[in-house]
Amino acid sequence: MGRLADAATSVRFDTVVSEDRVGDCLTHIHKWRYVYARYTTSMPRPRQGAARVAAALGETTRLAILSALLEREATVSDLASQLDLAQPRVSTHLARLRTAGLVSRASSGRHRTYRVAADRVKRLLDALYAAGSGALRQPSPRAGRERRRDPPLRHARTCYDHLAGVEGVQFLREMRRRRWLLEGMRDGPAYEVTPSGLRALVRRGVDVDAARASRRRFTAACLDWTERQPHLGGALGAAILGALFAAGYVRRRPHRRDVRIVKSLAGWLAPASR
């Protein structure tokens, strides 16, 4: 409070204090009288931009919209159907994401489609999920419904560019059991690749060096939407899913997030036959 009062004394009371200033203080005019003032100087532009992005990411529905748009561009109607939301609510969230510079809009005839800057949004979501607290482990109502229904989406799907669902959680658990991955140091990647893990992944066509050189987070413990346990995110998670596609173990389903497991992933993880 003392710091606020000191700052307030520098305000000239013969000028109007603008409404966009933040921070409240009481300034002593004389022994028995106070006036209310709003005083702080304008926030620097880089900090304003960061604050807008942080506020835009601070809502679970907007995170779901970003994840959906990382799969493919979509209209408001597409997103409302996919996320089981009312269209006006989707439009409101999209407007907030556009203001933060996370989503752009393109018009094609009568339709307006929305898309994201994939590289930037992936890095943001990787960092955000990696920093998620234990409170995030509580399932959302929709996640609870999906677990009770037990559809293909729960079992194997993409979480923008890495494997998620039951298969994704089990896949990470098995890589850790084989000691291909070890828990990372605090403030570093969520997992580090061991020498034996590096050899195993390279033999299976995973470009670990390119993943490590990526501008995004190398590995992330991405909290699974339905299982509430981590699956492997980050650049390495994307590289591994790419290798699974290339080797024919996983196949995409057109215009859907769930993927088809063509061959058991245990076979991909198994030691190569000599």
Description:
The protein has 274 residues and is α+β, with helices and mostly antiparallel strands. It has 3 domains: 2-38, no CATH class; 45-116, Winged helix-like DNA-binding domain superfamily/Winged helix DNA-binding domain (Arc Repressor Mutant, subunit A); 120-269, no CATH class. 46% of the residues lie in helices and 19% in strands. It has 13 helices and 12 strands. The chain has helices spanning 2-8, 45-57, 60-71, 76-83, 87-99, 118-130, 141-149, 152-155, 165-177, 195-203, 208-213, 234-246, 265-269; strands at 24-30, 33-38, 103-108, 111-116, 157-159, 162-164, 181-183, 191-193, 220-223, 230-233, 250-252, 259-261. The strands form 6 sheets. It has a two-stranded antiparallel ribbon. A two-stranded antiparallel sheet has the order 3-4. Strand 5 (157-159) and strand 6 form a beta hairpin. Helix 4 (76-83) packs across helix 5. The radius of gyration is 24 Å and the shape is globular. The chain starts with a helix and ends in a 5-residue tail after the last helix. The model is unreliable at 1-42 (pLDDT under 50).
